[in-house]
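Structure in, sequence out. Go:
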């Protein structure tokens, strides 16, 4: 990542709130969470969509997860079916289940669809190799 595009914040909840409060949402926009989204992030998304009159969707992650591609396909398919999805919020490593989301693959595929991705990376440092 370009060092000019990296900002350090007090904690991930502050970072997520900062992004959501500066995202210009329209009433037709949808923010996509999943069944393993960290609770504080889900609450921040709820506040953001209420302010804008936008909507929230939540994807129920199918278990067991047999491959990274399965997770990528689940997210891509939902975004293809729902053109209003503007932003996907996901954890790099989910707090409730410790699922490691293949964020690089997910971001690459969702950007092809014009969908923004916000990653809560609080649990990743020290757990997985990171290359920012």
């Amino acid at each position: 990542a370009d060092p000019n595009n990296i900002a350090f914040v007090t904690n991930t909840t502050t970072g997520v709130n900062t992004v959501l409060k500066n995202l210009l949402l329209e009433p037709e926009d949808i923010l996509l969470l999943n069944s393993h989204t960290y609770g504080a992030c889900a609450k921040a998304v709820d506040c953001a969509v209420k302010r804008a009159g936008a909507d929230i969707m939540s994807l129920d992650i199918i278990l067991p997860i047999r491959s990274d591609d399965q997770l990528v396909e689940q997210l891509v398919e939902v975004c293809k079916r729902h053109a209003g999805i503007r932003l996907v919020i996901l954890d790099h490593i989910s707090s409730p289940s410790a699922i490691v989301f293949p964020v690089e693959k997910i971001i690459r595929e969702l950007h092809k669809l014009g969908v923004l991705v916000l990653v809560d990376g609080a649990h990743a440092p020290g757990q997985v190799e990171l290359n920012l």
